[in-house]
Amino acid sequence: MKIFKYVVQEPGGKTVRGFLEMKDRAEAFSFFRERKYRIQSVEEASKLEVSLRGLLEKFGGVSRESIVLFMRQLSTLVHSGLPLAQALESLAKQERNQKLKVVVETIKSEIEKGTPFSEALGRYPVLFSQLVVGMVQGGEAAGILDQALERLSYLGLQELEIRTKLRAALTYPVILIGIAIFVLSFLLISAVPKFLDIFRSAQAELPLATTILLTVSDVLRKFWIFILGGIAVVSVAISRYYATPQGRHVLDALYIRLPLFGDIYLKIAVARLTRSISALTKSGIPLLQALTISKGVTNNVVVLESIDRIRAGISQGKNITELFQRAGIFPQMVVQMVSVGENTGKLDEMLNEVANFYDLEIEYFLRNLTSSLEPVLLLFMGVMVGFIALAVLMPVFNLVKVFRQ
Predict the structure, then answer these.
(1) Number of domains observed in the structure of the chain
(2) φ and ψ at residue 12, rounded to 5 degrees
(3) Is residue 231 part of a domain?
(4) Lower Cβ count inside 10 Å, N or C end of the chain?
(5) Which range of residues forms the domain containing residue 11?
(6) Using an 8 Å Cβ cutoff, are 139 and 145 in contact?
(7) How far is CA 121 from CA 8, 52, 106, 273, in A?
(8) Span 219-270, pLDDT tens digits
(9) Could you tell me the pTM of the whole model?
(10) In this structure, what CATH number is given to the domain that contains residue 314?
(11) Does residue 126 fall inside a structural domain?
């Protein structure tokens, strides 16, 4: 398969640009002509353009919300008895995102030529994850594609809900911190020095608070470029260290051991992992393959290594519960639920229960985080502004006393 960049005009007159994956240029032309698009140019993309395409799709192309909505609508249509190709055609007609529209039309075209749906989805790894492809593949093999699509839409909605709650919980504190940094920086660099220069010229003895404020203000004004440069250098160094195998292992291990946030970070990872394994096994995917596919839901190398060890142990016939216990990162409740599932033959149901339980814990934590951080941040801002006001006003009071004497 080759990637072509195209510029075409829709029947309505709108010009559309993008990338298309086809076997050759003739097939690309045929694809647009079948849909009565007016072709302006279709050329094979260079390696650089292919790389840029990946970045554009990742950061500026099709949103997660659009993919989740697409999977949910497709699930509804297929479940109602509509043939897959017809369902895709219907969704393509109503899709507003042009990039996703072309992708859906391409997938439909591939299906009509006999390509399995999972294989057609797998050609767009930026849009459809390994989890999506694996579940669709399992659903196709077991003849329960509608159920697999329904589970995928459920997984997508759960993921979006967690992301939305996390974003909502962190937005206000981040805004407060940003405002605090801006206000304090403005006061220390621009406003405060003008007042303090007056006290310096009077050669009056300054209180300790004023001296501290002067020192901080001078450091910020004289060395601000070095401070920003130092932050940039440290950020780049950490980023490069994380890019190394050792650095990634060290920092990922640190993430799950951070006070307060490490615990919730691990619970989010466990909830994603257990829900994915549960959905995959329910779709007819063997447990070993489900573990492999589920690795795509987390980037933490410590969790990934634990999954690999569990998978290797299962392939050797070892007890699943003991493998989860030895992994060392899973909470005891997860181990107990796995044990119940293994003994009753309902591992998929128990793993789903684990995911639901942690979803509630995550929601409770995020709700408390917002309500707790707000007064703490406001108090911090109040203390800092009060300290600056005190440091400025104390020399004024001293000068007034001197003039009275």
Answers:
(1) 2
(2) -80, -5
(3) yes
(4) C
(5) 1-60
(6) yes
(7) 23, 20, 10, 22
(8) 888 888 898 899 999 999 998 998 898 988 899 899 888 887 888 888 888 9
(9) 0.69
(10) 1.20.81.30
(11) no
